[in-house]
Amino acid sequence: MPRQIPNYLRVHREEPPVGQPNTQEAYPGLTQISHAMQSLTGFGLALREERSPNKGQRMSQQHVNQGSKSARIELHAHTAETVAIDDAGTLENIGSLAGGLEFLLAEIDRLRVAVRQRDAELATHVPVISCPTVDHLADRLEAALASAVEVTGATAAGLYVLDDATSQLKLRASFNLPETRHLSPARPLEGSLADLEALAGSAVVLEDTKLLPHWHCPEDVPSAACVPVATSSTPLGTLWVFVDHTRNFTDRDTNLLEIIAGKIAVDLERDQLISERRSAQKLARQRNQIADRQKSQLPNVKPLVEGWDVSAWTQQGSDLGGDFHDWAVIEDGKLAIFVGDAIDENFDAVMTSTSLATAVKANCRIAHNAEVMLDRVNRTFWAASAGDHFASLAYSIFDPMLGTMEAGSCGHIQGFAFKQNSVRPLWSNSQPLGSGPEVTPELATALLQPGEAMALLSSGLIETLRALDGKNWKTKFCDLVVRHLDLPTERILRAVQERLNRGSESISLDKTLVLVKRKEEN
Q: What are the CA-CA distances from residue 297 to residues 57, 304, 325, 353, 389 (Å)?
């Protein structure tokens, strides 16, 4: 009858050699200090560790944070002459030395706990604790490794997690391994045959690691087993259990290890998902704060210019957008009004529109006409851009006394002058700002009589009107304004908004409309 092949990879030999596992002191160098002190004073140092009843945990996190000692240093006299020493000062100094060593060991333990927790967090690429109300991920991983050791009768266990490049394996959690293992560099995945075989989906059992060094067991132990740690779609790393004597692993052992590895994968994925959710919530809060800041930067008080009525409305297509409007009273009491439209999306649109608005504000008091203004702003915008950001800008200057208007535009902002018996576009589309070190703006002038008005529309509002009214959007928009031209600009603006709201489809585009009207003389 053929021999049944187990469902895991077994590597062994029939006559394993007998070997003793290497041991490592908990605090390297303490033995050397004890021998030196014994030679000098006759007193030796003995370490009495105070372990927590929790598996694999020397002391609680609270115990560590409070600076409590995790180990006690005891002084032992090795000769009768030593006991006869009656120099109280010498004995007191020796005792103080032992007490100082205790606090040094406590600090070492505190740092080890911190490294252990950071390693567990890095297993999910989480920089901070995502849910402090539950057990730390390091404690949950260590408890799972302790269970793996208990159910298989092993000696120690370690969780090795792949890096982002899937080229290295780093120890991120351990049970009964020396604390200094977390300080060791990552193992290269290339050449680690046992880990590669496990990541391919097979459990690997090394009954005798001495005979098969090319399988690269992470620890110098006689026997070990390795199982994959993976989600349904992503390999995360490997789970190793180590034994301090040569032994076999049964099918039951490997099955239990795979179940524990599955639980570890769930824990890692859970904390990663929690972290991603918290990051998404933080990003949403930041977006809301930026959107609120963007809205607050729009002017909410009309310019105080006698004889003129100004109303404006800006609505972003989403939380963040690139449209803005503003105004300022410049030299000789003239009124400057401008509309900007960043040709970007989301955060890029916010940054572009903010820098554009800042450049306009900085230059509006020194630029004497619209052409100079657009040239100055374009040079500033071009110098600060990497060449991949563009924006539209319309800038107009009104003389309240004469009723004259001079304006210019770069990009796709449309302007209309509403006269008593006619309506005319102010300019055609042109090159946007940022398209080169020099631009040629479209310029226009007009004389507004009492009761006449001017309108500025951003490209998003134009596209919205075109989607609602088709090719005749200009005619229908101008007819709507003319029908309400005898009303204040706020009423005209409200009529346009009502027309947009009656649209059958919702169009998420940034929209800006500015209306400037010369008031009727009383």
A: 55, 18, 9, 11, 21
